[in-house]
Amino acid sequence: METVIQIHQLSKSFKGIETVSDVNMNVKKGEIYGFLGPNGAGKTTIMKMILNLVKPTSGEIKIFNQSISTTSYQYLSKIGSIIEYPEFYGRLTAKENLELHCEYIGVYEKGAVKEALDIVGLNGVENKKIHEFSLGMKQRLGIARAIVTKPEILILDEPINGLDPIGIKDIRELLMLLKEEHGITILISSHIVAEIESIADTIGILHHGKLLKEVRMEDIRKENMEYLEIKIDDLKKTAHVLENKLGIRKYEIVNQHCIRIFEHDISQSQINKELILNDIVVNGIEKQQQHLEEYFLNLINGGNQIA
Ligand SMILES: Nc1ncnc2c1ncn2[C@@H]1O[C@H](COP(=O)(O)OP(=O)(O)OP(=O)(O)O)[C@@H](O)[C@H]1O
């Protein structure tokens, strides 16, 4: 699949302090790329560098295979974005705000405003003034403004921040629609893992300016999120059998009576049999699914079970 945003060894320092360190990232055409990291990890700074709002200290950013520089601007017409909180003119209506935006950036296709408002589900309230809008409606309008120029890429910095569960679900559905029906590639940041889990095709995990992991969701689901939980009476003996008799290395000790195995080549019955043969009392053995949240926390806290 074609890579539409390619970042190579990107770094940024502010007053000598490195905020982004040697980041390599690849966003593929048509995917939703979830950019995850705690507050202050450097997500906004990277997004601003992609949009030429901040100049990198070093490294390269390629958009549609073209290297960008401080003087590049044409590629920006292919990108829609919301960086930080979307601001609007409160006394103007939704429609007027979008029309003004089109005029401002010099792109105006007849019907584009209506179409964008339709897509985000604000067609009934286009003549309402923004100061009467809820946060969720403003977020939708922010997305409408970002897509009104029909971009190929959408860059959304924490678009779900502060929304209630219904608002979050609405935005998720909207992003899926933009991806599936309009073929838009979406780079979305969040510090809340659960917001991204169900929609991202790929996630990039950023911590202290470094990209710790870039992985396809389907791969981590299989490799690191499915595990076998076994309840045993003797932890030491079990660990010994797992390592020395079965050659299992990817496991996590939950407590004195519980171990999680993240190895997929050995069957449940094989493990069970070996433990019993070695006189270990097995009180339970069950397949479980880890949430991305745990995977994420393990990774940023330097957990040991993730390869
Ligand atoms: N213009 C600037 N001058 C100095 N420091 C900056 C500047 N912009 C960002 N930083 C610093 O860079 C670090 C990363 O900030 P950034 O906003 O990129 O993080 P983030 O991952 O987007 O977090 P958040 O979710 O809080 O926005 C922070 O410590 C911030 O204070």
Automatic annotation (TrEMBL):
Which Gene3D superfamilies does this entry report, sorted A to Z? P-loop containing nucleotide triphosphate hydrolases
Q: Which CDD domains match?
A: ABC_BcrA_bacitracin_resist
Entries under InterPro entries matching the protein: AAA+_ATPase, ABC_transporter-like_ATP-bd, ABC_transporter-like_CS, P-loop_NTPase
Name the Gene Ontology molecular function terms of this record: ATP binding
A family per Pfam:
ABC_tran
The entry's keywords: ATP-binding, Nucleotide-binding, Transport
SMART domains given in the database record: AAA
Q: Which residue intervals define the domain ABC transporter in the entry?
A: 5-233
Q: Is Manganese there in the keyword field?
A: no
Q: Which family does it belong to?
A: Belongs to the ABC transporter superfamily.
This protein is called what?
ABC transporter ATP-binding protein
